Amino acid sequence: QVQLVESGGGLVQAGGSLRLSCVASGRTFSIYTMSWFRQAPGKEREFVARITGNTWSDRITYYSDSVKGRFTVSRDNAKNTGYLQMSALKPEDTAVYYCAGTARSGDYMATEMYDFWGQGTQVTVSS
Questions:
Q1: If we measure between CA atoms, which residue out of 82, 112, 76, 108 comes closest to residue 97?
Q2: Are 74 and 51 in contact (CB under 8 A)?
């Protein structure tokens, strides 16, 4: 089993930055892909970014169009931690952010792909 715990959320003004962390424990070798999703009130959970691969040579990142160029996803396997660096934040980025992990391959933008989820961390961007 794998446990994921997010941290780093908070309140920030538009244009500001935050870095979210996701610490994994347990059978962490099961996480080949770590992704970030977000869910705003009244909306479905949506894909934000993912990082696939356990070594620098095979690492792949992918972003949703809404965050491309502003967010950066990374991971430190030695620390069993994933990160989401968010810059140039906008009020529409306000949501609960979740990290998720999977050992499977497929449609990484689908929530059904993920076996492990964190509890979420709130990000609020004021205008």
A1: 82
A2: yes
Task: Decide: residue 36, CB within 10 A, 0-12 exposed, 13-18 middle, 19+ buried.
Answer: buried
Interval 79-118: pLDDT, tens: 999 999 999 999 999 999 999 999 998 999 999 999 999 9
Average pLDDT (65-70) is 98
Query: How far is the C-alpha of 30 from the C-alpha of 116, rounded, in Å?
Result: 10
What are 109-115's contacts with CB under 8 Å, separation 24+? 109/47, 109/64, 110/47, 111/37, 111/45, 114/35, 115/2, 115/30
> Rg (Cα) of the chain, in Å, rounded?
14
Distance CA 45, CA 60 (A): 22
User: Residue 124: CA atoms inside 13 Å, Cβ hemisphere, count?
Assistant: 5
